[in-house]
Amino acid sequence: MTDLLAPLAAIVGAANLLTTPHDIAPFITDYRGRYHGSPLAVALPASSDEVAALVRFCAAHRIAIVPQGGNTSTCGAATPDGSGRQLVIALRRLNRIRAVDAANQTITVEAGCTLAAVQAAAASAGLLFPLSLASEGSCQIGGNLSTNAGGLAVLRFGTMRELTLGLEVVLPDGQLLDALTALRKDTSGLDVKQLFIGAEGQLGLITAATLKLFPQPTAHATALLGVASADEAIATLNALQAAFGDRLTSFEMMSEVCQQLVAKYQPGALPFQAPWALLVELSDSGDNTSLQERLLQWLAARGLGDGVLAQNDSERTRLWQLREQMSALQKRDGPSIKHDIGVPTSAIPAFLDACGAALQAAFPGVRIVAFGHAGDGNLHYNISHTRPGNAELFADEDAVNAIVYEQVHRLRGTLAAEHGVGQLKGHWLQRYKDPAALAVMRAVKQALDPQRIMNPGKWL
Fold it and tell me: pTM of the prediction?
């Protein structure tokens, strides 16, 4: 297929078509190192027109396409296979902020913009783009859209699906779909942009988006609280929502095992340890003092045993670091079988009890590291020990997954709350997703991509 390289290079420029092992190395292995590929080449387009030309060429020659953003997928969604017949289209050069409309509170950006760059552009206009992820310095908006990313503020602002007003997408035949509207209301037919959000690049290649912005909050009240059980954690969430409404921006849970990891690798960083630690943040207009005083009064009335209220931005940052570093600390502690599950918030205690008991029965001494966005029902439920010596951890992965996903399914939850499906969870999706829903998805795939050139080998 080397005779195809010259026409591809003509589209993006020879310097932007990567073919040598050294040059393509950053693009062919997933974030967790589980999946490796060998593409025909890696193309780095700098415009939507170049993306469309690449896709038209690939469609004409039946070359499979793997869209790639910041390559931070934890499920292998943006990794090519080993056939040498797939073109990776990486969007890092498609990185312009096209427009900031402060009066309309919207921003239009290209898909290769990092999340941090979009946040900064919004802030420069005195506004807020609220999506916040640990990988925000490297993940890109196209990938955030393709996985319907959530993050730390879903409780108040929603996922990328709720934050998106319009999209520009290159379809599998190379047509450029211009649905880049900045409208908040439009009843002129189906909302076609929703097809591409969460589709992991299997229906088309997102090149730009118009996103919602919000007033920048001027006051924050952030507290780390200790509670005795998951039931008490959810009761605290409900009480906070009743008292503060949508001022409650974030509500995170960390198990005692998580806190032990912090104590192990960062002695003295934790002000206390409890069966569950809750990181709570309110945000509003006005000043910090007033909001913090309201939260302090509420906490005093609740009579919670352990708690720390941040008094300034430095203390707020330190409290957030306790939560944001959890994945890195767990990785430092060793490998784990990871789950990104979601259940109704009210069902979190039942899930934790039932799944913990089932895993303990199957793997006595199992070590569960559970933390996450409890305010929206999304938990990172990771298993870092199954047997003495832990030598067989990944040999136990299928058995562990079967237990976890069965409990999730029983509670009408999801096995992919915010990280997507990719290569990692496709077979589990076939087992647990409603068959009628899967049939609809396949019909849409067939209608838009009959040649099946868009990101093959993933869950569709």
Answer: 0.92
The Cβ-side half-sphere exposure at 298, using a 13 Å CA radius, reads 21
What is the Cα–Cα distance from 416 to 378, expressed in whole angstroms? 9
Per-residue pLDDT of the chain (460 residues; tens, 9 = 90+): 668 999 999 999 999 999 999 999 999 998 888 889 999 999 999 999 999 999 999 999 999 999 999 998 888 889 999 999 999 999 999 999 999 999 999 999 999 999 999 999 999 999 999 999 888 888 999 999 999 999 889 999 999 999 999 999 999 999 999 999 999 999 999 999 999 999 999 999 999 999 999 999 999 999 999 999 999 999 999 999 999 999 999 999 999 999 999 999 999 999 999 999 999 999 999 999 999 999 999 999 988 778 999 999 999 999 999 998 998 899 899 999 999 999 999 999 999 999 999 999 999 999 999 999 999 999 999 999 999 888 789 999 999 999 999 999 999 999 998 888 998 898 999 999 999 999 999 999 999 999 999 999 998 8
- 128: Cα separation from own chain's centroid: 19
Three-state SS for 255? strand
The structure tokens listed for 400 are 């562990």
